[in-house]
Design a protein that fits this description.
By secondary structure, the chain is of the alpha/beta class. It has 2 helices and 5 strands; from the N terminus they run βαβαβββ. A 3-stranded parallel sheet has the order 1-2-3, with no helix packed on it. The radius of gyration is 13 Å and the shape is globular.
């Protein structure tokens, strides 16, 4: 199933709790619609957030908002083909950004 939310501004705890509470699996996708905050401070706070997000099982698709540094400026990101397009990929080997159809809002 595909879920979506947005504007978590560097606070992934609700995302982790939602994934645990609803027992999301590797077969699920969670789309974060901008202002995730994973590439905002460019220091340990970003690393801590990314570490917390690695605890969840679904694929995370983060659409970068106006408060994020673009992946193309970060040497740790690579571009790969995914779902008929290209996407910057993070260290987990999963897409860090993608546009995907959304079906359900975890906050609703």
């Amino acid at each position: 199933m595909i879920y979506y939310t947005g504007d978590i501004h560097g606070n992934p705890r609700e995302i982790v709790q939602f994934c645990d509470r609803h027992k999301l699996t590797e077969q699920d996708t969670l789309v974060l619609l901008g202002d995730v905050g994973a590439n905002y401070f460019l220091n340990g706070r970003d690393a801590e957030m990314k570490q917390l997000l690695t605890q969840v099982k679904p694929t995370l698709l983060c659409i970068h908002g106006n408060h994020e540094v673009r992946p193309s400026t970060l040497p740790s990101y690579q571009t790969k083909e995914w779902n008929g397009g290209t996407s910057p990929w993070g260290s987990r080997g999963r897409p860090s950004r993608c546009r995907a159809p959304a079906r359900r809002n975890p906050k609703g």
